[in-house]
Amino acid sequence: MTAQRIGVMGGTFDPIHLGHLRAASAVADSLDLDRVIFVPAREPWHRGEQPGASADDRFEMTRLAVVIDPRFAVSRVDLERPGPTFTIDTLADLQGANPLDLASSGDEWFFITGADALAGFMTWRDPLGILELAHLVGVTRPGHALQAIELPTGSCTLVEAPGLDISSTQVRERVREGADIADLVPGPVADYIAERGLYSKGAS
Ligand code: ATP
Ligand code: MG
User: Fold this and answer.
1) Alpha carbon of 160 to those of 38, 137, 152: distances in Å?
2) Which residue has its alpha carbon closest to ligand 1 atom 29?
3) 123-171 pLDDT, tens per residue?
4) Which of 2, 23, 164, 166 has the fewest CB atoms within 10 Å distance of its CB?
């Protein structure tokens, strides 16, 4: 297999929404990526609150969403590793035994973060180790300033692109209120949420 340029986007994806997908495709266009792998976290280490949907439901919604772009894929590596999810482990696992069989030596790796997540990057576990495994990419997230952080020269790229002001929190709130989410998530994800009764009042 020829070497590829592979983007990775980690997150809780509770649920995945059009803002994530728009940001990933903007970065893929801008940096000429062959792939973007979405990796739902098992237990996000930085969140006090547990996700509203189970890991399997978050994975399934992500799987339903990624079909919209042939460059997109989804991985279970973070769901299969016990304990909180750290990006350093995500990248190491993806670059080791890759269950998607998408990687080969010589691939170039890019870890994609929205502007809000980028701002906290130095508080993540082993940030400099992460930079040895992947080039960091910060992408526009409306409502958050996209600003360079102090990192070794050449280790981070900012991609400014028209973004969508959507958050998973907003999706969960809308569902709880019984409001429509068709403008926030892909159709199959909206259908899945409705069928499974996720995020509604009384859902666990
Ligand atoms: P929540 O409201 O539950 O925190 P979220 O919408 O922030 O959810 P996450 O799963 O926390 O989604 O984010 C995963 C990654 O996607 C992070 O890097 C985050 O910055 C990025 N991201 C989320 N929403 C957007 C958006 N609308 N535009 C660009 N990047 C986004
Ligand atoms: Mg978030």
Assistant:
1) 20, 10, 20
2) 141
3) 999 999 999 999 999 999 999 999 999 999 999 999 999 999 999 999 9
4) 2
Q: Decide: 12 in ligand 1 pocket, CB within 6 A.
A: yes
Beta bridge partners of 36: 7, 72
Contact 181, 190 (CB under 8 A): yes
pTM above 0.85, yes or no: yes
Residue 168 Cβ < 6 Å to ligand 1: yes
Residue extents of the structural domains in the chain: 5-163
**Are the C-beta atoms of 159 and 179 separated by less than 8 Å?**
no
Residue 44: the pLDDT is 65
pLDDT band at 62 (very low <50, low <70, confident <90, very high): very high
> Atom 27, ligand 1: which residue's CA is nearest?
19
Contact 106, 127 (CB under 8 A): no
- To the question of domain 5-163 being in CATH 3.40.50.620, the answer is yes
Please provide the average confidence, as pLDDT, over all residues in the chain. 92
Compute the distance between CA of residue 61 and CA of residue 172 in angstroms, rounded to an integer. Answer: 14
Q: What is the distance in A from the centroid of ligand 2 to the CA of 10?
A: 10
Q: How far is the CA of 117 from the centre of ligand 2 (A)?
A: 7
Residue pair 155/147 in contact by the 8 Å Cβ criterion: no
